[in-house]
Amino acid sequence: MNKKTWTDWQVNKPCPNCHIGHLISVDNKFVQSETRESAMLTNDEPSYPYTDYVFTEHLKCDQCSEIVMAMGFKFEDNYPNPDGDHNMSINYSAFIPAPHIIEIPKSCPDAVKKILIQSFGLYWMDENSCANKIRVSIEALMDALKVRKTKITRRGRENVMLHNRILEYKLRNPDVSQYLLAIKWIGNSGSHLSDVSKEHILDAYKLLEYALELIYNDKKKDLTKMSKAINKRRKPI
């Protein structure tokens, strides 16, 4: 995962359908309108240095032609810079459907995939909600890995906290458990409405992408299958 892809609006995002191509803006499908607050400020103060817009945009995959709808806010300087251009920036608030921020292994359980795909959309809208959804994906992962979720106590059957489930999984896979625990702490911050940034979210995704790769290891399975076939035939396949 390349963080710059998700923090720099000028970098084309990967297609949520084919995952190979990139989303390119369709020129005649970009529509912007100045916000009411910006219009009031510029009317009251003609020398106001910025103009703020809301926009909608259609993006098209350069490989499979998938169409994605995007929306957000655009900020533009009212006065040209020394090069004669107007500086501007774009903050995306939503992609429909949302690009996949990390690669999900093919053999990853559908329940985990579904939650992760939901989290990709939340990344643009609400960092705290996104962090919480990533935490929920770890809960689903523990379920898929059959790590016990309840225990019998003197008070009856009780749920096992996610932290303890990860520690239990550590007995099976100590390397991966440390990544999952770090992700859980980031998810906890989102659940408690702490100041979670996009950088924090991307850290969680980076850890999760590697953890899933270690657990499901599709690449190793594919390469092992290929090497066995070549060795059996003693020639390229």
TrEMBL record:
Q: Entry's InterPro entries?
A: DUF4145 (IPR025285)
Q: What region holds the DUF4145 domain?
A: 124-209
The name on file for this protein is: DUF4145 domain-containing protein
The organism encoding this protein is Mucilaginibacter sabulilitoris
- Read off the lineage from the record: Bacteria, Pseudomonadati, Bacteroidota, Sphingobacteriia, Sphingobacteriales
